[in-house]
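dumping the sequnces here before i forget
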Amino acid sequence: MIGAFNLKKYFPVRGGVVGTQYLKAVDNVTLTVRRGEVVGVVGESGSGKSTLGRMLIRLLEPTGGEILFDAPEEEMVKYREALESGDKESAEMISRKYSLLRKKGSELRKLRTRMSMVFQDPYSSLDPRFRILDVIMEPMISTGYLRGEEARKKALDLLEEVGLPRAFGNRYPHELSGGQRQRVAIARALSTDPELVILDEPTSALDVSVQAQILNLLKEFRRRKNITMVLITHNIAVVSYMADRVAVMYSGRLMEIGDKDDVLTRPKHPYTMALISSVPRPRPGEARKRIVLKGDPPNLLSPPRGCVFHPRCPMAFHECGWTAEEVAEDINYLVQGKYYNVFGDNVKVIPLQDKVKVEGANPESIKKVLEVERENIRSLTAVKEVTEDSLLIIHAFQEPKLYKESERRSVSCLLYR
Amino acid sequence: MEERTEEGKYSNLILSLKVFFSNRTAVAGMVIFLAYVVDALIMQFDPRLLGVTNPNQFTYNFVNPVPQPPSSQYPLGTTYPGINLLQAILEAIRVDLGYSMLIVVGGAVIGAVVGILAAYVGGYLDELLMRFTDIFFSVPYLVLAIAVGFALGRSFTSMVIALIIVWWPIYARYTRSLTLSIKESVFVEAAKAAGASMVRIMFKHILPNTLPPVVVQISLDLGSVVGVFATLAFIGFIPNANTPELGYLASLGLNYVQSAPWTVIFPGLAITLFALSVNLMGDGLRDVIDPRRRS
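..and the predicted 3d for all of it:
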């Protein structure tokens, strides 16, 4: 149905001493959605999932990459292979045919009838000066899908379908409750009978009791109209209830994608494991093996090199992208703290290019410390060797790609190379 | 069900009225403003009700041109040349009110379009339009109005045009700032996702949402425009010497101001009272649209 290939969105951040920097909200995300499928996109705040959703229906222009809309499965596969093998010609041919990004003006407007979006906050997504009926009619009228009396009739029918009385058509949004407004937003999204609906956290602004109603409503529509959905959420429970497949995002990148049950019960990526372990389970008494991540999500202006998750990853190893700064910081922490007795006052840890210089320390004792602490402090695994003059050489790193773990499962982690 | 809907429909209006009427000075302002409006309407449609035969000109009395103090025959006295001040003020209110409305609304419409265009389209157009408004801002308004009026000639039309040119930049800045915040709202994004065109978003979504604060601004401005309009008439921009206009009326008594101060005081008072009333009313309206003041 829709496929995003190496999709990127960099927001320019101006000012400051360093000049214009780019915030990498979405970086190299590849995701294909089959017709009739519900794909859940999960991730914490700031992981780029909303940005991804907005790019999929062209509310935001991607900085790079390609989106194919309404392309048959084989073509998508072909396009992906062409990209991987560097076959520009056939890639160009496919993208010319299906590219969503090349559509302009009236062509794009026509496509807008085939895809729509439900926004997170129903309190701000409805124009306060529009009557409910006008809100629902808007997509039909602005795309020319239906006009006048026909559009009106359809809007009233839709009101009924989403479980609201027809009389609500003459009300204004502020007269409705949150759940009712979200129903209106869903009616608006469905008014042009789209094949693809992007749901951007459709329930997170609602009361728990209302959330279930909205989800059931969406499920019902999906069953009846065979609508393809991209469900963006941070709520694992919502995904497990609604989705067929799950994509996990972290810091603008795709970490893992696969069938819902597979991903939720057997997470492969260390980040997914931590994410899933954070979900409370209704089993009293059962011990929960919760993986608590240390640190914060990375700064998107200068994300960690290699795998973006490596500084927080409990399973990270030498190739994950450790920098001299990261290693130096951890060593400094050990030298100044836990091993102060061994090293004393005169030790200086200086990060260099892919090396860390430890001044005033005996290489043998450094080696010993590394040996002991390696299991706890993952950055130390990146030290390849310690030279005679206490120079710590850092391993070369590798950029992770999406590795096919099984037929329908891909993981972006070097563990699954 | 039907009944509930009706109730819901008007609850917002009722709340607005409650907020407005709880502010006594605003109500007083509105009463005075309505009195002016009623007077203007009577003068327009049936001046005989107030004993005026021709509201388009002053009734001179050259038999006794020297200003008379207020008496039972002339409640506000007379001004040179023998004009009944009360009657003259009642006539002049129509002209002042009408032209002020025209100026403010005209300025607001132009300003709103410029402001929305600048903010929504952004980029170079925004730069261009806003620097253009800055130029108009940088010239003192009275000087600009006199210059434009001088260039266009002495007529009411040129006076109105001159003042609209003076007045639109405020509205351009105001709607621009409002648009900048509204255009980031989710419902605008939703309209984009629905395939709405730029023009539709600007004028169907953004414009109605900027309207309430702009209306308040209009009501506040009405007072100052009357003052400026009267000022221009006072210094002689009036095309026809026999036009009932408050500023011109005040200027008629200028030579007698020491011996007959009422000739200047009463027309001036009419202007001041109007400015005061619309300002009070505008403050009340501001409370109505400010969500923090309504609870």
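The first helix of chain A runs from residue 49 to 56.
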